[in-house]
Write a structure and sequence with these properties.
Layout: H1 19-45, H2 63-70, E1 80-83, H3 84-91, E2 94-97, E3 100-104, E4 110-115, H4 120-123, E5 131-135, H5 141-146, H6 149-156, E6 164-170, E7 176-182, E8 184-187, E9 191-199, E10 202-209, H7 216-229, E11 234-238, E12 244-246, H8 247-258, E13 266-272, E14 281-284, E15 296-301, H9 308-316, E16 321-326, E17 334-337, E18 339-341, E19 345-348, E20 350-355, E21 371-372, H10 387-398, E22 414-416, E23 424-427
Parallel strand pairs: 10-11, 11-15, 12-23, 15-16, 16-21, 17-23
Antiparallel strand pairs: 1-19, 2-8, 3-4, 3-22, 5-6, 6-7, 9-10, 13-14, 13-20, 17-20, 18-19
Helix pairs in contact: 1-2, 7-8, 8-9
C-alpha cells in the first residue's frame, strides 16, 4: 500500500546572538517557506487543481492567505492550514477548555449537548441535557440563537487553561446549582458512551462516537469487546457530533461492524486527480478481534456528521441494511493528505475523492436521513425518550418509523469548542 504521508523537514540554522532579530527572521522565513510549499502542493496534489484561480504566490505573505486565494470555493469548504503543534495535539486527543458543546432546545433554553468525561464540569456531575441558565451572569441562549460567535467568545473567554467561568445550571430534578470552573487541559474520550439495549428484536449495541482520533483505536477496541461478549448483532451508531478524523480509524470502525467475513472487500477507494492516478488506493475491510457482524444498523446524524463519519456510512452501505435518523449530514465525500512544514504549519488541502465498493460517492449535498428527527438535547444519549434514539429503537423492533416527523423538526443552534477544521477525513502514514 503506497505511503500517504508526505514529509518535508525544514531545518533552520539558529544563532545564539541577536536572538530577537533571528526569531523574527525565522518566523518570516517559515511564512515564505510555508507559502511556497503550499503553492507547489496545490499545483500537483490539489484535487481541483485545474479549477483553481490563477494567482501570483508572492502577493501573499503566508500559507493561510495563499490557500484562501487558491482553493476552489464552489466545492471546497474544507482545505485548511493549521498550526502544526495545535493540529498534533488535537489528533492525539489533547483538549483545552471546559469540554462541552452547548445548544438551544426548542423552548429556547441553553443546554449541555455533549460533555467529555475528563472535563472539570463532568466531575462536578454536569451531563447532557442540563440547562445552562447563565454564564458569568449572562443568559447565553439568545447569543447562541443569534449565532454571534464574537459575543459568545467574549462571555466564555479564550481557549486557555485557567480561564474561569461561573455557571448557573438547572439540574434534571429542577434544582439550581452554581459551579465555578476553570478551563483545563485534558485528554478527550472519543467514545462518549457504549451500552447494550435489550430490544424485542434482540440485543443491540449502542455506540456514541464523537471523533476519529488516535485514542479512538483503544476506545473502540474496549467497546466492541463488550459488544462481542454480550452477543450484539444489531447496532445503533450515534455519529451526530462526529465531524471526522483519521481514515484508518474509520476503516477499523467499519470492519468491527461488518465482521471478519468481509475481510478484503472494499470499504473505501481513494481516487486522486489525473496527475496522480498511480496513488489511487483501496481501503479494505480488515480483521478485528471483536467483530459484531451486524445484521441491521441505525445511524443517528446531524449536519455535524462529516467526512470520515460519512465514509463509514457510505462504505457499509453495499453490505448492510442501514437506516439513518436525524438531519442530513455535512456532505464531504473528499479527503486530504497532510504536508508538514517543519513544526510550524500543517498543510491539509483536498487531495482525493472517496467512493465505496459500488463506486458511490459525490454526496456533496449530504446524506439525507431515512427519518427526519431533531437533535433532542433535553435528554441524555442513552435515555430511550431521546427523540433520535427512540426512533432508532422503533425501527429495529418494527422495521418502520411512526409518523412523518418532519413537522416538529428543528435544527438546534450549537457552539462547540472543537476547531472548525475538524470536518475532515485525514490520510496519514498509519494508513499504510
Amino acid at each position: 500500500m503506497k505511503r500517504l504521508f508526505f514529509l518535508m523537514l525544514i531545518l533552520l540554522a539558529l544563532s545564539v546572538s541577536c536572538k530577537k532579530d533571528n526569531t523574527d527572521n525565522d518566523e518570516n522565513s517559515m511564512k515564505t517557506v510555508g507559502r511556497d510549499m503550499l503553492f507547489s502542493v496545490m499545483q500537483k496534489w490539489y484535487y481541483w487543481y485545474d479549477l483553481m484561480p490563477t494567482v501570483t504566490k508572492e502577493d501573499y505573505k503566508d500559507p493561510y492567505e495563499l490557500l484562501e486565494a487558491m482553493r476552489y470555493k464552489k466545492l471546497d469548504k474544507w482545505s485548511f492550514v493549521a498550526d502544526y503543534k495545535e493540529f498534533m495535539a488535537e489528533m492525539e486527543g489533547t483538549f483545552v477548555g471546559h469540554g462541552f458543546r452547548i445548544g438551544v432546545d426548542e423552548s429556547g433554553k441553553a443546554r449541555i449537548a455533549m460533555i467529555y468525561k475528563r472535563s472539570p464540569l463532568y466531575k462536578e456531575g454536569v451531563r447532557r441535557g442540563w440547562i445552562v441558565k447563565t454564564i458569568n451572569g449572562t443568559d447565553i441562549a439568545p447569543i447562541i440563537t443569534s449565532g454571534d460567535a464574537a459575543a459568545y467568545n467574549s462571555v466564555i473567554g479564550a481557549s486557555t487553561a485557567g480561564v474561569t467561568n461561573v455557571f448557573v445550571f438547572k439540574r434534571p430534578d429542577g434544582t439550581d446549582v452554581t459551579i465555578s470552573s476553570a478551563k483545563s487541559t485534558f485528554s478527550v474520550n472519543s467514545v462518549l458512551e457504549y451500552d447494550t439495549l435489550h430490544l424485542a428484536s434482540g440485543i443491540t449495541g449502542h455506540l456514541v462516537f464523537e471523533s476519529f482520533i488516535e485514542p479512538s483505536e483503544a476506545e473502540l477496541d474496549t467497546a466492541f469487546a463488550f459488544f462481542n461478549a454480550n452477543g450484539v448483532k444489531d447496532m445503533i451508531l450515534d455519529l451526530r457530533y462526529n465531524t471526522g478524523g483519521y481514515l484508518y480509524i474509520a476503516q477499523e470502525l467499519a470492519s468491527y461492524i461488518a465482521g471478519n467475513e468481509r475481510k478484503g472487500s472494499t470499504f473505501a477507494e481513494l481516487s486522486y486527480n489525473d496527475k496522480n492516478q498511480s496513488e489511487n488506493i483501496i481501503y479494505p475491510f480488515i480483521t478485528t478481534s471483536y467483530p459484531v457482524s451486524s445484521a441491521k444498523m441505525a445511524v443517528i446524524t446531524t449536519r455535524s456528521t462529516a467526512s470520515a463519519s460519512e465514509a463509514v456510512m457510505n462504505g457499509l452501505k453495499p453490505f448492510l441494511n442501514i437506516v439513518s435518523i436525524g438531519d442530513t449530514t455535512n456532505g464531504k465525500p473528499v479527503g486530504m493528505n497532510g504536508y508538514p512544514v517543519g513544526t510550524t504549519y500543517y498543510l491539509w488541502p483536498i487531495t482525493f475523492k472517496i467512493v465505496n465498493s459500488s463506486n458511490e460517492g459525490d454526496y456533496f449535498d449530504g446524506i439525507a436521513p431515512s427519518k427526519i428527527a431533531s437533535d433532542d438535547i433535553t435528554h441524555d444519549f442513552s435515555d430511550r425518550n431521546e427523540t433520535c434514539l427512540n426512533a432508532a429503537i422503533q425501527y429495529l423492533e418494527t422495521g418502520t418509523f411512526s409518523g412523518k416527523g418532519a413537522s416538529s423538526f428543528k435544527r438546534s443552534p450549537q457552539y462547540s469548542e472543537k476547531p472548525s477544521w475538524m470536518n475532515n477525513a485525514f490520510a496519514t502514514d498509519k494508513d499504510k
